[in-house]
From TrEMBL:
<feature type="binding site">
    <location>
        <begin position="329"/>
        <end position="330"/>
    </location>
    <ligand>
        <name>substrate</name>
    </ligand>
</feature>
<keyword id="KW-0326">Glycosidase</keyword>
<dbReference type="InterPro" id="IPR050985">
    <property type="entry name" value="Alpha-glycosidase_related"/>
</dbReference>
<feature type="binding site">
    <location>
        <begin position="439"/>
        <end position="443"/>
    </location>
    <ligand>
        <name>substrate</name>
    </ligand>
</feature>
<dbReference type="InterPro" id="IPR013785">
    <property type="entry name" value="Aldolase_TIM"/>
</dbReference>
<feature type="active site" description="Proton donor">
    <location>
        <position position="505"/>
    </location>
</feature>
<feature type="binding site">
    <location>
        <position position="483"/>
    </location>
    <ligand>
        <name>substrate</name>
    </ligand>
</feature>
<feature type="binding site">
    <location>
        <position position="406"/>
    </location>
    <ligand>
        <name>substrate</name>
    </ligand>
</feature>
<keyword id="KW-0378">Hydrolase</keyword>
<dbReference type="InterPro" id="IPR000111">
    <property type="entry name" value="Glyco_hydro_27/36_CS"/>
</dbReference>
<dbReference type="InterPro" id="IPR038417">
    <property type="entry name" value="Alpga-gal_N_sf"/>
</dbReference>
<dbReference type="GO" id="GO:0016052">
    <property type="term" value="P:carbohydrate catabolic process"/>
</dbReference>
<feature type="binding site">
    <location>
        <position position="163"/>
    </location>
    <ligand>
        <name>substrate</name>
    </ligand>
</feature>
<comment type="similarity">
    <text>Belongs to the glycosyl hydrolase.</text>
</comment>
<dbReference type="Pfam" id="PF16875">
    <property type="entry name" value="Glyco_hydro_36N"/>
</dbReference>
<protein>
    <recommendedName>
        <fullName>Alpha-galactosidase</fullName>
        <ecNumber>3.2.1.22</ecNumber>
    </recommendedName>
</protein>
<dbReference type="GO" id="GO:0004557">
    <property type="term" value="F:alpha-galactosidase activity"/>
</dbReference>
C-alpha cells in the first residue's frame, strides 16, 4: 500500500511515496496538488536481465533489496545481520515534516528517518536514527542520509582546498559512475568541505536547476554522488565511522548528523540565498541584538611578541580607526613564546603581563571596544605543564609514535578529568576578565584519535560540542569564533554554538575573492570573518592596493589584521575609510539577499547584496580584463518599473592605467529605471587587474 506525503514550503514541494520504504518522488518546484493517477503515471517498467521486482531508491537504500550502489546502512552482528531490509511500520507527517519508522525484524534494527522542509527558506533537513533492538551488540559501520536527484542533474560542483586555500571548487560531468569524498582529518577540514552541488549542465551563478547539499558535522565524513546504471542518481552523506567507532549495545542508538539540501531554479544564487536564509533563521543566534562589530586581531601584527604597553598603543590606534572589538591572539599565556610550547596552560603569562590583563582590557574598553581573547582548548604542547602532569590526557594510541602537528597534540575530550580542567580554565578566564569574545582555534588534524584504545572521532566531536555548549550556558553573552588554522572547521553544526568563522589564514585579497565566494554559497556574510591585512600579504608575499584589500574585506564580517602602530598615516586613513564604509552598509550586507552575476569577463567576480530598497554591488577585476572594453553591468534583480538612484561608492584611487578617459557618470548620481538597468545595463570603467569598485543603488 502506497500513499503520498506532500511537504510544501514557500516555493517547493517534496513528495514522498511511502510504501514498504519511503521514496522521494519529487523534490523541486511546488506542485499544487497530487493527481489521483500519480501512482500509475510514475510506475517504473522492469527491465530485462535485471531483478524481477522494482527496487525503490529509498531514503535509506538497502543492499538486501537490490540497491547495488552505496547502501544507506552497513554493519553486522558478529558477522550476521549485515544486509538489513526494512519495512515501514509508522508514518507521522504534519505541515513541513515527516517521520518514518522502519523495522527489520530479522536483523532486529529500527530506523527513524526524519525529514523536514523549512517553510521560509525551502531548505530540506534529513537525519536517521538507528536503534539496536536485538539482544547483542550491533557493529555499525555506516549510516548515511540519501537524497535523490533527477536524471537531468548531470553536472557536479564539489569543493576541495587546503590551508590558506579553502572552498575551491571543481566541476565534473555526472553521467555514469560518481564522485566520492572522504574526510578522516577529525575536523570539518580545509580539504573536503562537506558540501556539493548537482545541476543541469552548465549551471551557473544565475542560471540552471541546482540541488545543493551540506552535512552539518565537524568530524569525519563521507559524501558521494552516484549515478546508477538505470540512470537514477542520488547524493549520500554521513559521518565516516572508523573501525569499531559505533558499536551499539542492545537498545542503544546512533543518530546521523543533519544533511541539509536545497533546490534552485535560478542557479547557484537560489541555493546561496536559501542556505543563507536558513542559517539566519535557524542556526545562528547572536547573543545581543547589535551590529557585527569591526575587529582588530593582533596575530599578523605582533605574533608572539606581547608587550602590554605596545598592545595598548595598538588599541588606541584601532579605536581611532573605528574598530569595535579588539582581540589578543596567541601568545598571552604562560610560556607561550612560540608555537612549540605551552598549549594547555591557560593562565596569563605574568612575565609578559606583570600588571595583569585587566589594564589592557580596561584600556581597550576605554577606546570604546569590546575585548576578545584567543584560545586553543583542544590542544596540548609537549612542552607544557599540562602535558608534564597529565601525559595520558592525549588523544592517541598506546604503543605507537604519534606525529605531532604544529608541534602539538590533541587532548582527549572524552576523558572527564581533562574535559573538566578545560571547562574550568575557560570558565575562570571568562569570569575573571571582561571578555566578550573568544577566538577558539584548532590547529591540527587527529592522527591517532583513540580514547581508551578505541576510535574516537565521533566521541571527540560530540565532547567538543558539549564543551562549547556548557561554556555558552555559563557565559551566554560571550561570542565565539570557530577558527581552525583559518577555515578548517566551518559547518552548520559548529555554527549552532559559535558566531563567526575565521574563513582562512590567507588574507591575500585575490585569494580571498575565491575563498569567500565558495563559502558564501552556504554562509551569510555576517559570519564570514574577513580582514584587511598588510599591503604585502603574510601568507603569499603578494602585494595588493588598499582598494582591493578594503573592498574584499568589507563584504564579510570585517576586521583588520595588522599592527596599526607601524602603518603609515595614509594607510590608517584608508583603514578608517573602509571601516566607515562597512559600517555605513552593514545593515544591507548583514541582512540582505546576496547574489552573484555571471560575468561576460571570466576574470571578474561580481557580487551584490540587496534588501528591499537598497543594493550594493562589488565588481572585482581578478586578472587582466578579457576585452578592451568592459561589458555593461546588467542588473537582473531590480524591479522593472522602479526608479533607482545609482552611485559609485568606491573605486581604485591610485591607478586607472588601462583607461585614458573615464565614464562621466562615475562622478555623478544617475537615475535609471529597473528595465534599463536590467536590459541595457551600466557601463563600467576599465578596471586594472586586482582592483575593485562598489556601486550603490537606492530605490526611489
Ligand atoms: C591559526 C589561526 O588561524 C590564526 O589566525 C592565529 O590565530 C594562529 N593560529 C595563532 O596561533
Amino acid at each position: 500500500m502506497s500513499e503520498f506525503i506532500h511537504l510544501t514550503s514557500k516555493n517547493h514541494s517534496l513528495i514522498i511515496k511511502s510504501g514498504r520504504t519511503p521514496e522521494v518522488l519529487h523534490w523541486g518546484a511546488k506542485i499544487a496538488s497530487i493527481d489521483e493517477d500519480l501512482l500509475l503515471s510514475t510506475e517504473r517498467p522492469i527491465s530485462q536481465a535485471r531483478l524481477d521486482v522494482d527496487v525503490p531508491l529509498s531514503l535509506c537504500p538497502e543492499l538486501g533489496s537490490g540497491h547495488f550502489n552505496a547502501p544507506g546502512i552497513e554493519g553486522h552482528r558478529d558477522g550476521f545481520d549485515w544486509a538489513p531490509v526494512f519495512n515501514t511500520v509508522r508514518v507521522e507527517a504534519q505541515d513541513q515534516q515527516a517521520t518514518f519508522v522502519l523495522e527489520d525484524t530479522v536483523s532486529k534494527l529500527e530506523l527513524t528517518v526524519e525529514i523536514k522542509l523549512d517553510y521560509e527558506s525551502d531548505v530540506v533537513q534529513k537525519r536517521i536514527t538507528v536503534t539496536n533492538k536485538g539482544g547483542s551488540k550491533y557493529y555499525l559501520n555506516k549510516l548515511s542520509s540519501t537524497l535523490p536527484l533527477p536524471n537531468h542533474a548531470n553536472e557536479l560542483m564539489t569543493f576541495h582546498g587546503r590551508w590558506c586555500h579553502e572552498f575551491q571548487t571543481q566541476r565534473q560531468r555526472f553521467e555514469h559512475g560518481g564522485f566520492m569524498q572522504e574526510n578522516r582529518r577529525g575536523r570539518t577540514s580545509h580539504e573536503n568541505f562537506p558540501g556539493m552541488f548537482a545541476g543541469t549542465q552548465g549551471f551557473s551563478e544565475q542560471n540552471g536547476l541546482v540541488w545543493g547539499f551540506h552535512l552539518g558535522w565537524s568530524g569525519n565524513h563521507q559524501m558521494r554522488a552516484d549515478v546508477r546504471s538505470d540512470g537514477r542518481r542520488f547524493v549520500q552523506a554521513g559521518e565516516l565511522l572508523l573501525a569499531g567507532e559505533s558499536i551499539l549495545e542492545p537498545e542503544a542508538t546512533y543518530q546521523t548528523p543533519w544533511l541539509y539540501g536545497c533546490y534552485s531554479n535560478s542557479g547557484l544564487n537560489g541555493i546561496a540565498q536559501r542556505f543563507q536564509q536558513f542559517v539566519r533563521d535557524n542556526i545562528i543566534q547572536f547573543p545581543t541584538d547589535k551590529p557585527r562589530p569591526v575587529h582588530l586581531n593582533t596575530w599578523e601584527g605582533i605574533y608572539f611578541d606581547h608587550k602590554p604597553e605596545y598592545i595598548m598603543q595598538m588599541a588606541t590606534e584601532a579605536g581611532a580607526m573605528g574598530v569595535e572589538r579588539f582581540i589578543i591572539d596567541d601568545g598571552w599565556f604562560i610560556g607561550r613564546d612560540g608555537e612549540r610550547t605551552a598549549l594547555g596552560d591557560w593562565y596569563l603569562d605574568e612575565v609578559k603581563y606583570p600588571n595583569g590583563l585587566e589594564p589592557v582590557i580596561e584600556h581597550v574598553n576605554q577606546q570604546g571596544m569590546e575585548f576578545g581573547l584567543w584560545v586553543e582548548p583542544e590542544m596540548v604542547s609537549q612542552d607544557s605543564n599540562l602535558y608534564r602532569n597529565n601525559p595520558d590526557w592525549v588523544l592517541g594510541l598506546q604503543g605507537y609514535h604519534q606525529p605531532s602537528g604544529r608541534w602539538q597534540y590533541v587532548l582527549d575530550l572524552q576523558n572527564e578529568a581533562c574535559f573538566d580542567y578545560l571547562f574550568s580554565r575557560l570558565d575562570a578566564l571568562l569570569t575573571t576578565y571582561n571578555i566578550g569574545y573568544l577566538k577558539w582555534d584548532m590547529n591540527r588534524e587527529l592522527v591517532q584519535p583513540g580514547h581508551q584504545g578505541k576510535a574516537a572521532v565521533h566521541g571527540q566531536t560530540q565532547a567538543l560540542y558539549r564543551l562549547v555548549d556548557q561554556l555558552n550556558q555559563a557565559h551566554p553573552k560571550v561570542e565565539i569564533e570557530s577558527c581552525s588554522s583559518g577555515g578548517g572547521r566551518i559547518d552548520f553544526e559548529i555554527l549552532k554554538r559559535t558566531h563567526r568563522f575565521w574563513a582562512s589564514d590567507c588574507n591575500d585579497a585575490l585569494e580571498r575573492q575565491a575563498i569567500q565566494k565558495g563559502m558564501s554559497y552556504f554562509f551569510p556574510p555576517e559570519v564570514m570573518g574577513a580582514h584587511i591585512g598588510p599591503a604585502e600579504c603574510h601568507s603569499t608575499n603578494r602585494r595588493h592596493s588598499i582598494n582591493m584589500r578594503g573592498v574584499t574585506a568589507l563584504m564579510g564580517h570585517m576586521g583588520v589584521e595588522l599592527d596599526p602602530v607601524k602603518e603609515s598615516q595614509q594607510e590608517k586613513q584608508a583603514f578608517s575609510h573602509y571601516i566607515a564604509l562597512h559600517k555605513q552598509f552593514r545593515h544591507i550586507l548583514h541582512s540582505g539577499r546576496s547574489f552573484r552575476m555571471d560575468p561576460a569577463d571570466k576574470n571578474q567576480n561580481i557580487y551584490g547584496v540587496q534588501n528591499d530598497d537598497e543594493m550594493l554591488i562589488t565588481v572585482c577585476q581578478l586578472a587582466m580584463p578579457e576585452y578592451a572594453l568592459p561589458s555593461p553591468l546588467r542588473i537582473s534583480c531590480v524591479e522593472d518599473s522602479a526608479l533607482y538612484q545609482v552611485k559609485l561608492v568606491e573605486m581604485p584611487q591610485t591607478s586607472f592605467q588601462l583607461m585614458k578617459q573615464r565614464p562621466q557618470w562615475l562622478d555623478k548620481t544617475l537615475t535609471l529605471s529597473g528595465d534599463n538597468l536590467k536590459e541595457i545595463g551600466l557601463t563600467l570603467p576599465i578596471l586594472d587587474p586586482e582592483s575593485a569598485l562598489i556601486v550603490h543603488l537606492k530605490k526611489m
